[in-house]
């Protein structure tokens, strides 16, 4: 696991600056505190920071092939590298290390760009081929590992694991106003955009070649999307096969030369991963969880029960905002506005885990693969809801729902009900988007200043629509699973986990996103993945003999902090200061009166505006560092 960066003078614009390469690389030290390495050859410069996980002695990077014509910097883990290595040795390749990095080099020698299709793992890498005078960038299938790229003002090409390294160059730092507009709806900037006009994210399952011939991208994989009725109906039960695939993925991802543990939220996903891990170890698995003083958010008791059931060495901590030295510093790890506030407890649990292990496995991705969110069956509820006459819905049901008192509890009934009825009459795809939006288009015209809105922006729904357009012939459940994997999973959940674990020099692995498992589940009939209004039916059935019934049948869990309460109490001074009229006005793009009204409504208990408040807060803090 590493942080990587590099540069390529596409038009021989001058020699690579070692000083610049060092500045870029050392901004990534948190991703790899154990080692650093550099390679410069004429127009190209490669650099890496290493977190040593496999082959601790000889896995130094950049790493070259036998005749030094090919060099690589690599971030991630290749879980099938030993099988790949054995096959490469059979056909004549010679290895100098025991690292998975060197396997990629020889695969590239043998298969060129198609080497990526052989890899099972999470990865982002860059290969310099002196024979073709070009650089190959590649990112894993689901986007577990990040990779950014840009051109500076002179036309030099740069890439890095995080944006902060690219900001060491002379790249155009102008704000991407459309991305900021989209962020207000989504809490993140959607791929391939970033908050900087001159910097892009490399898309998942994509290779990018940069040479004198320009840039060339290729998509090498996608989630299978069978048309409705064309799923695999060959049998009625897939539980044994799916459990075997999960166990195989966990076994692969437990490979490590350093201590390993798991993040345990007491929900179905993380418990499944932890139980399988515990059964394969000769000593107790180390598990880590966090709790909160507010009952509806706290899962520490359940996590402790799971840990006792599966026999782990369990560590837990009760979280409060005082445990974060600086929220501004924590948010700075994202380099862009990012408002998923579960980043706070994710950072804290990662810090706790890093004191005991170097690698953790998590349950992330289980919701997007196995249909774990309420929005994955909301389309069924909306069909039933629309049976009620429109007049009754509008004048009786909706009024009753909006008269419910505001609750600050975790995903409270009044929040879900109010959110649902406002989107229930929308078309299927727009409803799915609506149920996820923070600020809708009408609200953004109030949130932002007139001068900002006058730039003219595309409706943020276009992001979701671009993915829905690929899968309109699929069953509705498969449509929303595909769209969520391309949006929320990629740009929110995986981004959060990568930045917060790597901020603590901790490697996180996600067994549910093994591409072989993802491919298989995608082909299974929707009514088996989710029966009626039950989430994760297939997964619950598959782990029937593995987990206690109370966990297997339990509700969705996660590291969600009690932010509604924090804003009113522990963080009230911090939030109120940021929402002062002068600070909001200085942003030049947000409307101080509207933002202050959001805060006043929340503080009075009239409405739970915590998501909107945090989205504004993160935007303001980013704009103070990067004015438009």
How is this structure best described in words?
- The structure is a single chain.
- The protein contains 28 helices and 17 strands.
- The protein is of the alpha+beta class and 628 residues long.
- Helix 6 (239-253) packs antiparallel against helix 20 (515-522), helix 10 crosses helix 19 and helix 18 crosses helix 19 (476-502).
- The longest helix is centred in the last third of the chain and has 27 residues, at 476-502.
- The model has no long low-confidence stretch (mean pLDDT 91).
- The protein folds into 3 domains: 2-219, Glutamine Phosphoribosylpyrophosphate, subunit 1, domain 1 (4-Layer Sandwich), CATH 3.60.20.10; 239-371 and 483-552, Rossmann fold; 563-628, no CATH class.
- A hairpin with a 2-residue loop joins strand 11 and strand 12 (214-219).
- It has a 6-stranded antiparallel sheet with strand order 2-3-1-9-8-10.
């Amino acid at each position: 696991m590493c942080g990587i960066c590099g540069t390529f003078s596409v038009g021989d614009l001058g020699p690579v600056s070692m000083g610049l390469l060092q500045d870029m690389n050392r901004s990534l030290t948190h991703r790899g505190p154990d080692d650093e390495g550099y390679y410069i050859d004429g127009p190209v410069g490669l650099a890496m920071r290493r977190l040593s996980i496999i082959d601790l002695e000889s896995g130094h990077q950049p790493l070259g092939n036998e005749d030094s014509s090919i060099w690589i910097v690599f971030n991630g883990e290749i879980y099938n590298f030993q099988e790949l290595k054995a096959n490469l040795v059979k056909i004549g390749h010679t290895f100098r290390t025991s690292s998975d990095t060197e396997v990629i080099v020889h695969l590239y020698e043998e298969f060129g760009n198609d080497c990526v299709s052989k890899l099972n793992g999470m990865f982002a890498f860059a290969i310099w081929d002196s024979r073709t005078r070009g650089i190959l960038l590649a990112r894993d299938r689901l986007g577990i590992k990040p990779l950014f790229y840009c051109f500076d003002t002179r036309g030099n090409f740069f890439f890095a694991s995080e944006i902060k390294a690219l900001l060491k160059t002379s790249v155009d730092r102008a704000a991407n106003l459309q991305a900021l507009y989209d962020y207000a709806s989504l809490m993140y900037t959607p791929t391939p955009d970033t908050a900087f006009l001159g910097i892009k994210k490399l898309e998942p399952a994509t290779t990018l070649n940069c040479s004198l011939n320009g840039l060339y991208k290729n998509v090498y994989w996608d989630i299978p999307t069978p048309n409705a009725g064309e799923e695999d109906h060959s049998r009625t039960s897939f539980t044994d096969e799916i459990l075997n695939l999960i166990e195989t993925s966990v076994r692969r991802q437990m490979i490590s030369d350093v201590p390993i543990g798991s993040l345990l939220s007491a929900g179905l996903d993380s418990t499944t991963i932890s139980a399988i891990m515990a059964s394969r170890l000769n000593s107790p698995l180390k598990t880590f969880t966090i709790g909160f003083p507010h009952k509806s958010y706290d899962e520490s008791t359940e996590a402790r029960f799971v840990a006792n059931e599966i026999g782990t060495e369990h560590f837990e901590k009760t979280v409060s905002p005082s445990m974060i030295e600086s929220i501004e510093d924590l948010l700075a790890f994202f380099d862009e506005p990012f408002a998923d506030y579960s980043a706070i407890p994710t950072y804290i649990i990662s810090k706790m885990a890093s004191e005991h292990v170097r690698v953790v496995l998590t349950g992330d991705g289980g919701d997007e693969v196995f249909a774990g969110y309420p929005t994955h069956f909301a389309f069924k509820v909306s069909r039933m809801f629309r049976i009620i006459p429109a007049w009754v819905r509008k004048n009786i049901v909706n009024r009753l729902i909006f008269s419910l008192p505001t609750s600050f509890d975790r995903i409270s009934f009044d929040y879900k009900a109010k959110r649902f009825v406002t989107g229930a009459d929308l078309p299927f795809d727009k409803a799915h988007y609506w149920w996820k939006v923070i600020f809708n288009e009408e609200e953004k015209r109030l949130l932002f200043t007139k001068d900002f809105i006058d730039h003219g922006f595309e409706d943020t729904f276009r992001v979701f629509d671009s993915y829905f357009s690929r899968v309109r012939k699929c069953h509705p459940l498969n449509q929303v699973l595909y769209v969520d994997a391309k949006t929320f999973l990629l740009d929110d959940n995986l981004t959060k986990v990568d930045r917060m674990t790597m901020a603590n020099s901790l490697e996180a692995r996600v067994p549910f996103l093994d591409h072989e498992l993802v491919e298989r589940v995608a082909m299974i009939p929707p009514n088996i993945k989710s029966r009626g209004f039950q989430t994760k039916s297939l997964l619950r059935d598959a782990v029937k003999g593995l987990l206690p019934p109370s966990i297997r049948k339990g509700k969705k869990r996660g590291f969600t902090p009690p932010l509604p309460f924090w804003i009113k109490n522990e963080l009230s001074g911090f939030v109120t200061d940021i929402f002062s009229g002068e600070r909001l006005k200085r942003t030049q793009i947000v409307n101080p009166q509207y933002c202050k009204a959001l805060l006043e409504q929340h503080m009075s208990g009239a409405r739970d505006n915590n998501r909107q408040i945090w989205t504004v807060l993160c935007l303001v803090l980013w704009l103070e560092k990067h004015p438009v």
